[in-house]
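Researcher: Please predict.
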Amino acid sequence: MKYSLFLAMFLSLSACATANEIPPVSATCQTAECIKPQRIAHDVHKAKTLEKKSDMRISVTGQGVAPLNTTSPAQAYALAKRAAVGDAYRLIAEKVKGVRVDGQDLIKNMMVQKSSVRTSVNAMVRNANIVETTFKDGLCEVEMEIILSHAQFSY
């Protein structure tokens, strides 16, 4: 009984959501608000495209923190810089190739029990240059840039 009421309510809501206009109040839409679907404007977030005769410069700042259990300040600097360089490479890969996002929710008794989001990027980054490195209070920041040309991607 409980599931059949839920199914009836779900079907009435989906019928309201697929209409092109907001339907008048009727027996199928009295229990929930019917929302007019809206189209997302594709030109709001236009991504830069790589033109044939121009280059594109991508600049990022990676950050790394020195661990507390280092034996010397030089070791702390080296470890923080390595983490910052790795973060900068990841940021460049995210900008060039994009990010894959996987999410999963475990719902029990209409409550979220467990929620997880996993992001990943798969790319090969070559010819990236470190522009500047700063180290202050255990935080290392590495500014890295890469220049992309159309010839690198044409086969």
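Model: The chain has two domains: 1-38, 43-152.
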